[in-house]
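User: Teach me something about this protein's shape.
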Amino acid sequence: MSLNRRGFLGLTSGLTVATLAGCGSGAAPASTPRAGGRLRAAFAGGGAKEVLDPHLANLFVEAARSKAMFDKLADLGDDVSPRPRLAEKWEPSADLTRWRITLRKAVFHDGRPVRAQDVLASYARILDPNRAFRAKSSLTLIDLPNSRAVDDRTVEFALKRPFVEFPNALAAFGAYIVPEGAEDFTKPVGSGAFSFVSFEPGRSVLLKRNPEYWEGAPLLDELEFVIANEESARTNALLGGQVEYAHDLTPTTARSHASGDRITIHRSPNSAVQAFAMKLDRAPFDNRDLREALFLLADRPQLVESVLAGNGQVGNDLFGKGYQHYADEIGQRQRDLDKAKFLIRKAGAEGMVVKLDTSTAAAGMVEAATVFADQAKGSGLTIEVAVGNKDSYWADTLKNGSLSSFRSGAMPIETHIAQRLLTGSGTNVTKWTRPEFDALYEKAVSTSDEAVRTETYREMQRVLHAEGGYLMWGFADWIVGTTPKVGGISTAPANTLDWARFDKVWIG
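Assistant: First, the predicted structure itself:
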């Protein structure tokens, strides 16, 4: 059931005596895995508009529920590189234009085997030109009419161009495999670790253990997702014993409970990059000296400490710290006020007022903008913070203004480049357009030589670090809380395989 600030709306009223008994004292320690019990997980929700269609999943709660009930061919590991899931293995052709996928022996919840035809039908549904599914942009390189089911457990995908990073597409957000012909998701059938029991939109979803799961049955008997839109309500539900897991807690909450024994805090490093985006196609940040001045004005440790309450790491103006292909050899930028002042004068920007667009569309953005504006004082450049409409913020800042707050979750570095930094990228907020950079990307994704690919990605990052428009000052930890008796919680980055993954979790 849904939760709010004032109470828990009778969350426990319908629970059995056996379930409540598991909430008492004397439980086994969380370090000792044991089978059984119901875990109740509190997430922010979307009200009556929530869906169980995994191809429409957008909210974190929808993504977590989809993960519990469905599988993808691949998913992202802790370093945000693709790992096989329903795909037992993948093999590209020599020219990287055809990929053969061998499926695991897996079954849907109704007992039907997962077949190559289900994979092709799922991708055809996502790619339907008359529908809007989030994974569509990642799968558009598939030449579906020329793809085929070789047999029930073998799919051969034809691609429109050579693409060595095709496993990233298989792991795309929302690219779940559903039974051929599936359209009614009121009682969804997937191949995941948990199967459907009941759904009250905007309130709760109850799932049960799938004993036939291909990777091994979960320890939990039942998994219940409950809705609590306010972070304080999720925290209070955890403290009050109404739930055992609370998603997306604030750094302040984490800090206040870090040394206590009522909540166990779990941090997932490198889950969300925090940044400011400068547009290169217009004044004043079409001037490289001024962009460098902003890089040098940022006191990154202070931003991490004040905005993230220390729950994060300093960034170096590049996406994907710790991820596969990250250019960690590039030296860390430091604040240098004197050099920034020199560059501001050189750019003819002394006395200039620059508007920094921000909003409450993502946690911490307004606070970060305010801190950064204060850090710029005394430089000769004045940063004026403008708080915009949170509902239209991302669309507004994609087109308008010259400097804006930016935040992104985890994804492969290749995906970040493809979506945001190529001339034709749909979400190119910095307006970075370099034909030679596009050519480097094509070189990286069309070679099977791992060493060449890694070096090409690093060359691209060196160019971005020197001349780009993203001031990526920090990487935030994603924070969840559990009761101390819960074990098996992963610290993988948000949106990766082991984030919000409950088939490995137990209640002690």
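Now, about its shape. The longest helix spans residues 450-467. The CA atoms of residues 76 and 497 lie 5 Å apart. If you'd like, I can walk through any region in more detail.
User: That's plenty for now, thanks!
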